[in-house]
Amino acid sequence: MGQNFHTEFEYDNKINKSITIQNSYPKGGQRFTTTNGKEYVYVTFWTCITNKASFDSELEINFSTNLFTIPSEPNINFKLFLPNEEMTLEKEKLPNYGLDIISFLDENISKPSKLKTVIEPNSSYLFYSVVISDKGVNGTIRAGFELQKDELIYKLNNYEINCGKIAIKN
């Protein structure tokens, strides 16, 4: 994989054995209007989690349906989504990384987002995350996953959201 990602974290300790997480830059910044007329701004990201160990790792992420604010943007409401479609590197140069974001949001705007999968030894799993807000931000959105022990954290402009885990399956 090239250097077309924003952050990379390598974990090799007793809890997170041989896990690498790469998070992309954002794409999007376009507007989306729901069927009831509510307008949002969205950005799309991708994440690649690589399991370099000789055993399976189970990835589990849950994003709430609730809107929330972050300290750097206290007047803007945000919501997070995990589209079911798997990301591939061939989509990297496409708008929204090849995700049909409008269809996804039309169908999932009020649903919780969950992801649960097993990453096999010496394999990677690429997936999307989408951030929507009720207003555009003044500046750039940066977001991505990190591990703190076995807890998965999603950082949105340095605001930490506990959202899941990566568990070793022996």
Write up what this structure looks like.
There is one protein chain. This protein is globular. Strands 1, 2, 3, 4, 6, 7 and 9 form a seven-stranded antiparallel β-sheet that branches. Strands 8-5-12-11-10 form a five-stranded antiparallel β-sheet, with no helix packed on it. It has one helix at 101-108; strands at 7-11, 19-23, 27-33, 39-51, 56-63, 68-70, 73-81, 113-119, 123-133, 143-148, 151-156, 159-169. The chain is mainly beta. It has one helix and twelve strands.
Number of strands: 12
Helix content: under 10%
Rounded to the nearest angstrom, the radius of gyration is 16 Å
List low-confidence stretches: none
Give the termini separation.
28 Å
DSSP helix count?
A: 1
Into which percentage range does the β-strand content fall?
Answer: over 45%
N-to-C series of helices and strands:
EEEEEEEHEEEEE
* Main sheet makeup: 7 strands, antiparallel
Q: Please, what is the average pLDDT?
A: 90
Structural category is: mainly beta
Shape: globular
Please name the defining characteristics of this protein.
7-stranded antiparallel beta sheet, about 170 residues, mainly beta
Write the layout of secondary structure elements.
Layout: E1 7-11, E2 19-23, E3 27-33, E4 39-51, E5 56-63, E6 68-70, E7 73-81, H1 101-108, E8 113-119, E9 123-133, E10 143-148, E11 151-156, E12 159-169
Antiparallel strand pairs: 1-2, 2-4, 3-4, 4-9, 5-8, 5-12, 6-7, 7-9, 10-11, 11-12
Structure in a nutshell:
This protein is mainly β and 170 residues long. It has one helix at residues 101-108, and strands spanning 7-11, 19-23, 27-33, 39-51, 56-63, 68-70, 73-81, 113-119, 123-133, 143-148, 151-156, 159-169.
